[in-house]
Design brief:
By secondary structure, this protein is mostly beta strands. The chain is built from two helices and 17 strands. The protein is globular and about 40 Å long. The relative contact order is 0.25.
């Protein structure tokens, strides 16, 4: 029998579940809701993001979503966008190639991308690097971003251009629906992009969980950075309740 562990973190919730009959090596879902700083000094007001991390061999698929239910006071159109994801693969591992950046299932293009839909590429506006990010993201080696402003030397766009220009923060991810309209001459996606990466080596489930829960998400141009909440006892109690309800069915 094949097993797959799914790890979810969000709003103080930490769950680890064994699911039977699933063949993937591992899936981790993380909600990023913790204020890590940035230009914004207002309450988050529901600002949030989610990433689903799926490892299968050396293929890492990351579905990055804007799950915001509100935005801080004073935000502009570009500030509401998820524009970067930073993470640290284990020492000795790295991104070998950025295979694709596609509009996610049920998502749409906005503004200048209004003619794009699920499965269409937005790879010209997203880059990846194994170096390190700009500003607060200097502690994260692997960066996916709409912004050229990474401090780590060379980068590659998802459409295969070395040091190709991207238009960050536009090209980022808005909520569904966006809180502020995207100008017709600018680009965005509502509300998810699926990134496919080839790694130098695969990850164990525990490594994948560590990478996902240690990641950082950027909104706008340094406007707000969010991380994952620390696992808490509330999650263990919630898990016990879920399993208890399943047994009684």
């Amino acid at each position: 029998m094949n097993f797959n562990r799914v790890f979810l973190v969000g709003a103080g919730l930490s769950l680890s579940v064994l699911l039977a009959g699933v063949v993937n090596a591992g899936v981790v879902v993380v909600d990023y809701t913790v204020d890590l700083g940035g230009k914004n000094t207002e309450p988050l007001n529901g600002l949030a993001a989610r990433a689903t991390w799926d490892i299968d061999g050396t293929t890492l698929t990351i579905t990055l979503e804007n799950t915001s239910t509100g935005i801080p006071k004073g935000f502009e159109a570009s500030d509401q966008l998820v524009v970067s994801l930073g993470f640290n693969l284990p020492e000795g591992n790295s991104i070998s190639s950025g295979d694709s950046a596609l509009i996610g299932p049920g998502s749409i293009g906005l503004g200048d991308w209004s003619d794009r839909g699920p499965g269409d590429s937005v790879g010209e506006e997203w880059l990846w690097t194994n170096e390190f990010g700009g500003d607060i993201m200097e502690a994260w080696r692997q960066i996916l971003s709409t912004s050229n402003g990474q401090n780590g030397g060379d980068h590659m766009t998802f459409d295969g251009k070395l040091n190709g220009d991207v238009d960050g923060p536009f090209g980022g991810i808005a909520a569904d629906p966006p809180f502020i309209s995207i100008p017709s001459n600018r680009r965005a996606v509502s509300d998810s992009i699926v990134f496919s990466l080839t790694l130098a080596s695969t990850l164990t489930f525990d490594e994948l969980s560590s990478v996902a829960n240690g990641a950082i998400v950027e909104f706008g141009s340094d406007m707000q950075y969010l991380g994952a909440p620390a696992p808490g006892a509330l999650g263990l109690l919630a898990m016990a309740g879920i399993l208890g309800r399943r047994r009684r069915r």
